[in-house]
């Protein structure tokens, strides 16, 4: 596996320190600030570097490269596989009338499943129900096939997110990369590092990812009561106080971020489903807890691996980044300590993370977590 990386600042070309012709038919991830991905020439610029490349774009809330967290840049990670193969497929939410489970099902059906080891997803993050998308992807996927990835971000603006495959980035795209190879080893894991506080409540009214009532009372009113003065800063302040959601079907609680609020309907829009009957508590965290959670995620991803990882794709949550602030890179350093110094690290800060719980086959949508997907040939 040959892996090369480069960084681009706004209105400047990528700063290459390698010869692009070293990589034959590479998979090229470009994770970047939404404004940079809106530059009309962005796809042409990358295509000129890698004429035979398979180029996947995704907008971010921060870019991860090596041991660093970048802002207002685009980070290119080009991967040349020596023993493995891959396929890239795409769908758009508008093709399915926003029925994201059907989109996920249709996307997975485009992959031949024989010898398929893992599917990594880079998804639109503003107008997709990540839980429904994963449910569709899981519906026809064999249990032996891994699934991970993330929802694209737009810093803390929450205006729009972009993604694409072999074209200029645009809204509504869901990209999936399927990895094949007998010698390919892929492992993924997640961990949050957030703690619950306050009373436990029951979701008494919800629809998909829209939360109406807790214990028979308007959910938004209760949430604002707990936030106090910070309620004036919604929806941004909600990133600091996610919800722990214990569903009837999941053994482990799921962390859910509040993406937006609807003052007219008095509702909260979350990044994933919040089923009726689920138990809910508020959450908070500290810098040290988040950093320790990142290390725990790294240790879980390494557990049981037969080979040292060559590539680590990290997807972490914008809420973690806001809490960490100037110390954000500490969680990347903790991951590096767990996985070793041989792996090339890339990734992004997201609006939602996709990974299975440890020693579970099925993938889940997470918020406020560090997720890792480790590759080696």
UniProtKB/TrEMBL annotation:
GO terms for molecular function: kinase activity. InterPro entries: FIST_C (IPR019494), FIST_domain_N (IPR013702). Residues 219-357 form the FIST C-domain domain. Keywords: Kinase, Transferase. It holds the Pfam family FIST. Residues 24-218 form the FIST domain. It comes from the Bacteria. PANTHER family: BLR0328 PROTEIN (PTHR40252). This is Histidine kinase.
């Amino acid at each position: 596996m040959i892996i090369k990386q480069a960084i681009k600042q706004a209105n400047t070309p990528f700063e290459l320190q390698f010869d692009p012709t070293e990589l034959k038919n590479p998979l090229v991830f470009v994770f970047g600030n939404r404004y940079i991905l809106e530059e009309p020439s962005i796809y042409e610029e990358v295509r000129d570097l890698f004429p035979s490349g398979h180029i996947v774009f995704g907008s971010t809330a921060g870019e991860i490269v090596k041991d660093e967290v970048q802002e207002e840049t685009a980070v290119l990670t080009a991967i040349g596989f020596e023993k493995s193969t891959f396929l890239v497929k795409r769908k758009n939410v508008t093709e399915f009338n926003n029925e994201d489970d059907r989109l996920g099902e249709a996307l997975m059906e485009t992959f031949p499943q024989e010898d398929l080891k893992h599917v990594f997803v880079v998804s639109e993050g503003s107008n997709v129900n990540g839980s429904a998308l994963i449910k569709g992807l899981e519906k026809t996927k064999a249990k032996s096939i891994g699934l991970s990835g993330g929802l694209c971000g737009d810093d803390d603006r929450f205006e729009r997110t972009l993604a694409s495959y072999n074209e200029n980035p645009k809204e509504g795209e869901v990209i999936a990369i399927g990895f094949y190879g007998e010698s390919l080893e892929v492992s993924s894991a997640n961990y949050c590092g957030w703690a619950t506080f306050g009373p436990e409540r029951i979701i008494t009214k919800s629809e998909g990812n829209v939360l109406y009532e807790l214990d028979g009372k308007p959910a938004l009113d209760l949430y604002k009561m707990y936030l106090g003065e910070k309620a004036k800063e919604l929806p941004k302040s909600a990133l600091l106080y996610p919800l722990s959601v214990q569903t009837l079907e999941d053994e482990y609680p799921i962390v859910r971020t509040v993406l937006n609020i609807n003052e007219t309907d008095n509702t909260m829009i979350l990044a994933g489903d919040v089923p009726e009957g689920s138990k809910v508590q508020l959450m908070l965290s500290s810098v040290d807890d988040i950093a320790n959670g990142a290390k725990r995620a790294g240790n879980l991803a390494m557990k049981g691996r037969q080979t040292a990882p060559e590539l680590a794709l990290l997807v972490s949550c914008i809420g973690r980044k806001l809490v960490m602030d100037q110390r954000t890179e500490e969680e990347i350093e903790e991951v590096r300590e767990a996985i070793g110094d041989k792996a090339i690290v890339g990734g992004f800060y997201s609006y939602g993370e996709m990974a299975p719980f440890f020693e579970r086959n099925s993938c889940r949508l997470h918020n406020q977590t560090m997720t890792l997907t480790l590759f080696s040939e």
